[in-house]
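so my prof wants the structure for this chain in the tokens format not the other one, which i didnt know existed until like an hour ago. anyway here's the sequence
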Amino acid sequence: MKLKLFSVWPTVIGLGVTALAAQAAHPFLCTDALGGKVAMVSANGQVEWEFKCENPQDCWITPDGNYFFCFKGGVVEKLSDGRTLWDYNAPEGSFVCSCQPLPNGHFLLGENGPCRLIEINNMGNIVKEIRMTPPPSSVEIPDQFRGVRQTSDGHYLVCRKGEQAVEELDAGGMRLRLIPVAGDVHMALRLPDGHLLLALGDGHKIQELDENLNVVWEVGEKEIPGNPLRRVMGFQRLPNGNTIVCNSPGDANLGKQPQVFEITRDKKVVWEFADHVKFETINQIQLADVPGDVMRGKIMR
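here's what i got, hopefully its the right format
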């Protein structure tokens, strides 16, 4: 295992790596889809908690410090001691592609197979359902959809992974627009300024689009030394403008490079993490010590 720390502030280089360590590394919750588990990792890189499950896709730390996440067969909220608060089991043949806690106390799920968005309460009961237009039959069930997020105006952003497009639906499920993107999109997030941040999978890049869908920032496949983008699956945009990137290496590159790194707006790496013994890949992440907003991607601490 290695946890590399970098200084990106020239005026303080003389302080050395040791002085910057507390600022650079963070505890985090993550999913390992290939490894089949969700894990809590400390700031010094130690796995403090883990739960085995099939193909986990999305994860959250709740304001109470619980762990909420989805995997192929459903969603669950767990205490840090492993006890289950509640869970939901998806219908047979489903693949739960995404989950999100909502401000009203409910939870948003995306289900491949049935091709639907559902809102459930913490009893696991469905309180709202939106049927989505199925992808072409050539798109296999795991590849139909990926990240789904409700926005602050009640709309939904749906990553149509197999069709390389992001769909925006209104609160009732009517399509407002379909946005072609440059890869098999795994996550789309509307930022506070209205921009869209995209994780473009095997498109080997992360992009930020403005309101007119122009690219205003992107990181391409070979722009970061030592961190070639393989399959960009998840991210977290931090309050300081930096971005945490989950970079799955793919089967051909397992064990060869960092699984997660933080990058500044001018594309300097702040820190990176790799543990090829405990993790095959890290496909989604939430830092435990950085505040966020449930409507923008992460829960307010």
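also thought this was worth mentioning. The chain has one domain: 2-287.
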